[in-house]
Amino acid sequence: MGTAIAKVSEVLDMDPTDVIMNNAHTSDPSIKLCIEAGKEAINWDYHSPGTKTLPNGRMHGFGVRYIDNPQHGYFTSNILVNIKKDGKVYFTHRSSHFGEQNQDACAAVIADELGAKYEDVIIQYAPNANSYLSRGGV
C-alpha cells in the first residue's frame, strides 16, 4: 500500500497524507488525529520529491507509511543494525514482508546515514518475524 500511496502522491503532486486521508478505512478521527500530531511533531511541510535541497547538498524529504489493518491485528516493524569486522552493515528486519520492498528502503536509509555503500548493507530476516509464513499462511 505504501508504494501505491507514494506513486499516487507523486503523479498528482499531492501530499501523501492527503492521499491517505482520502483512502483510509480507519475510523475518523483517529487517523486524522495521528496524522495531524505527526505533522506537527516534525514540522511537516509537503513539497514535491526532488525539489528541496538542504544546505549540505543532500535532498530533503520525509517518508510516510500507512498500514490499513481493519482486523486491528498486531504488526510491528523493528530493525537491529550491526557493523561487523568485514566492513559490511547487517540489519535484522523484524517485520511482515508485504511485497512493498520496505526492507530495501531501510537498507538505503541505513547506507545513507552511515555513509556506507548500499551493496554493503545486508538484510537478514529474523526467524520469528511476523510474516505470513511464520503464522502458517500463504
Characterization of this structure:
- This protein is an alpha+beta fold.
- Helix content is 32%, strand content 12%.
- It has helices spanning 2-12, 16-23, 30-41, 102-114; strands at 78-83, 89-94, 121-125.
- The chain has a 3-stranded mixed β-sheet, covered by helices on one side.
- The radius of gyration is 17 Å and the shape is globular.
- The two termini are 18 Å apart.
- Residues 131-138 have low confidence and may be disordered.
Give the uncertain stretches in residue-range form: 131-138
Cα end-to-end separation:
18 Å
Fraction of residues in helix: 25-40%
Approximate strand percentage: 5-15%
Please outline the major beta sheet.
3 strands, mixed
What characteristic shape results from the CA principal axes?
globular
Attribute tags:
138 residues; alpha+beta; 3-stranded mixed β-sheet; 3 strands; globular; disordered C terminus
Offer a concise description of the structure.
The chain is α+β, with helices and mostly antiparallel strands and 138 residues long. The protein contains 4 helices and 3 strands; from the N terminus they run H-H-H-E-E-H-E.
Layout of secondary structure:
Elements lengths: L1 H11 L3 H8 L6 H12 L36 E6 L5 E6 L7 H13 L6 E5 L13
Parallel strand pairs: 2-3
Antiparallel strand pairs: 1-2
Helix pairs in contact: 1-2
